[in-house]
Amino acid sequence: MASGWNWESGEGLLGLDDPAEWDAAFERGENHLGTAAIGLAFNCSLEEASPRIARATRLPDRDQRGFAFTAVGTAARLNGALTPELYAVLRAEGPGRRSIAVNAIDDTLTFVPFRNLPPWLKRWKAVSKVLDKLETWRLETAYAVSDAWKALRGRRS
Q: 3-state DSSP: the chain helix, strand, coil percent, rounded to 5?
């Protein structure tokens, strides 16, 4: 642990700033590669971090894949952009509320200028706005009906 990174416990990996160290850990089959991908997103250029983050999104451990998608969102937040490789990862995982990439996609939609988004993500932004509005109307209607029902029952008592 001379490097300050503990691959067994994950301690210090958010400070990882050496893509070659990540590559070596990947080859060794170390734990916490998704966590380390977040460190790369924080501490390396987008071009250096991108291929490693993309690789981490395909890890067999679901939790570490989740951290890798957190790294994608972090990269979008810090750089206001993603690489074509990371957009492809998001597209492959798919948008939607049940997707492991949902937060990364939300971060991308928030921090990357609309004009720089790929066409599929621009369409998803429009679709998600419509779905959010429909859900708002559904909830408002349900609450109004519930309130009216309570008021009606209260008058009968």
A: 75, 0, 25
The pTM of this model reads 0.81
Report pLDDT for 1: 41
pLDDT per position as a tens digit, 60-73: 999 999 999 999 99
Which residues, other chains included, contact 66 with Cβ-Cβ below 8 Å and sequence gap of 6+? 34, 100
CB 40 within 8 A of CB 76: no
Given a cut of 80, whether residue 3 has pLDDT beyond it is no
% residues pLDDT > 70 (the chain):
97
**Which phi and psi (to 5°) does residue 59 adopt?**
-65, 150
Contacts of 22 (CB under 8 A, 6+ apart): 16, 33, 36, 37, 40, 52
How many Å separate Cα 54 from the centre of its chain? 12
